[in-house]
């Protein structure tokens, strides 16, 4: 039998003992794919809820052994461990497997070994990954590729690489967790959009977090695409071993970005595409969304997509739900849902897109500071409505850096919308950009955004 450390066809997996960690989306997909290739699969998960038990029943019906309610301290005789990206590298199972010499992969690494001739274009960053990947997917489709978005967005990658007929190209969104558990993944081209402190408890520090992002272009064969407007992304790009391409909104920046904005147009100098689309023709607004468009265009041009197809895709593209989505305009006040802004870096990008904002913020902090965010945004803040567990932390930052900004507290989303309406005047934008996670009050960021939209539409009605 072939070693799992080497690429192998479907038959080579027959009889191989594999331990799959987690019954979430990626774990389920990996376990099913391994079972379909004849592997002997044991699945473990620390959880034991109704959802976990339902997933376990499905896997047992396919022939897997499943144990819920805890994780073992080692691989237990398995020749390969395929882990959920949520399991930190310090978990005893992960360290125990490494000590035993057993490879630990994520679902992304498994899919890469099985990719066949499918090309990968990859996107990572602290913020903007999903929007950029969706833009890229639209460009690939407009360019005539059989393509799909996969990874941290939409379809699990092990399912995407098994499609028949095969996809030409995958637009792959990858988180730092997923990248940590990759070893040989080498996309045709890969972009690091930005790097700001996030998930530091999982990675053990800012340096390890940045290094995980940089794994996306570790191979010299990968065209590395970095952001000239983000110092951390540009620093990482300087260490990329392959071809390096910068994108950025300022054409006068040095070194000059290969994809930028000139005379009101997105232009491509790096791959010879010239003018791609007029900024006035885009349906997305805000500097960060222009950056996302430039990054997606760089990836598409690296794959050879025609400039006209890129321009047409961008002219039709609308950002997904909860990403700077306009909910309503009521009495001259614009209401915008950016519930996806779950950290200060994302909220800062969102606030920068509007001249006068009543800001709804707060939630479950991930150990991050709010001072820089408030200091940079104070010029556009008309008022703030704070919710959630970290409301006091944001209030302290506002008192320190923007003491003249009126601050209200709210117990829930309906209350927050009422308070924001009282602060807002015609010409203002009420912006839900929480700068924090949602789980202290809501199921997830989507539920938070949905409740915001419901409360706003109730006022409109």
Automatic annotation (TrEMBL):
Pathway named in the protein's UniProt entry: Cell wall biogenesis; peptidoglycan biosynthesis
Domain of life of the source: Bacteria
Enzyme Commission number(s): 6.3.2.9
Record has Cell division as a keyword:
yes
Q: Reaction catalysed by this chain? A: UDP-N-acetyl-alpha-D-muramoyl-L-alanine + D-glutamate + ATP = UDP-N-acetyl-alpha-D-muramoyl-L-alanyl-D-glutamate + ADP + phosphate + H(+)
Q: For this chain's UniProt record, which GO biological process terms are given? A: cell division; cell wall organization; peptidoglycan biosynthetic process; regulation of cell shape
Where exactly are the transmembrane stretches of this chain?
Answer: 12-35
Q: Where in the cell is it found?
A: Cytoplasm
User: Could you state one GO cellular component term attached to this entry?
Assistant: cytoplasm
- The UniProt record gives the binding positions of ATP as 125-131
Chain ranges of the Mur ligase C-terminal domain: 327-435
Q: Which family does it belong to?
A: Belongs to the MurCDEF family.
Please identify the protein, giving its name as recorded.
UDP-N-acetylmuramoylalanine--D-glutamate ligase
The organism named in the record is Frankia alni (strain DSM 45986 / CECT 9034 / ACN14a)
């Amino acid at each position: 039998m072939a070693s799992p450390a080497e690429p192998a066809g479907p038959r080579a997996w027959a009889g191989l003992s594999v331990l799959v960690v987690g019954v979430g989306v990626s774990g389920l997909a990996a376990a099913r794919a391994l079972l379909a290739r004849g592997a002997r699969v044991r699945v473990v998960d620390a959880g034991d809820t109704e959802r976990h038990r339902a997933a376990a029943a499905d896997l047992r019906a396919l022939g897997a052994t499943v144990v819920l309610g805890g994780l073992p301290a080692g691989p237990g005789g398995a020749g390969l461990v395929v882990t959920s990206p949520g399991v930190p590298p310090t978990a005893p199972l992960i360290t125990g497997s490494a000590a035993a010499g057993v490879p630990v992969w994520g679902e992304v690494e498994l899919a890469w070994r099985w990719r066949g001739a499918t090309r990968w274009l990859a996107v990572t960053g602290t913020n903007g990954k999903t929007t950029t990947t969706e833009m890229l997917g639209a460009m690939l489709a407009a360019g005539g590729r059989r393509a799909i978005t996969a990874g941290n967005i939409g379809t699990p990658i092990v399912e995407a690489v098994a499609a028949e007929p095969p996809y030409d190209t995958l637009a792959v969104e990858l988180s730092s967790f997923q990248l940590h558990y990759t070893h040989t993944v080498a996309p045709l081209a890969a972009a690091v959009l930005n790097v700001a402190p996030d998930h530091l408890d999982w990675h053990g520090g800012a340096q390890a977090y940045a290094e995980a992002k940089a794994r996306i272009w570790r191979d010299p064969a990968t065209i590395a695409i970095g952001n000239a407007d983000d110092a951390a992304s540009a620093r990482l790009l300087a260490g990329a071993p392959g071809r390096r391409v910068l994108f950025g909104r300022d054409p006068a920046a040095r070194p000059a970005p290969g994809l930028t904005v000139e005379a009101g147009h997105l232009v491509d100098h790096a791959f010879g595409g010239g003018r791609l689309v007029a900024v006035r023709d885009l349906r997305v607004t805000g500097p960060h969304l222009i950056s996302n468009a430039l990054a997606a265009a760089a990836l598409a041009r690296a794959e050879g997509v025609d400039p006209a197809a890129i321009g047409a895709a961008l002219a039709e593209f609308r950002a997904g739900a909860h990403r700077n989505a306009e909910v309503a305009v009521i009495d001259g006040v614009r209401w915008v849902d950016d519930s996806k802004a779950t950290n200060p870096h994302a909220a800062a990008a969102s606030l920068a897109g509007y001249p006068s904002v009543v800001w709804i913020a707060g939630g479950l902090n991930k150990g991050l500071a709010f001072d820089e965010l408030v200091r940079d945004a104070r010029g556009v803040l008309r008022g703030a409505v704070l919710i959630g567990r970290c409301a006091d932390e944001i209030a302290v930052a506002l008192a320190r850096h923007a003491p003249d900004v009126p601050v209200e507290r709210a117990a829930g989303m309906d209350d927050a919308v009422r308070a924001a309406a009282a602060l807002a005047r015609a010409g203002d934008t009420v912006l839900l950009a929480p700068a924090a996670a949602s789980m202290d009050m809501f199921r997830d960021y989507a539920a938070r955004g949905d409740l915001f939209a419901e409360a706003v539409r109730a006022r409109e009605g």
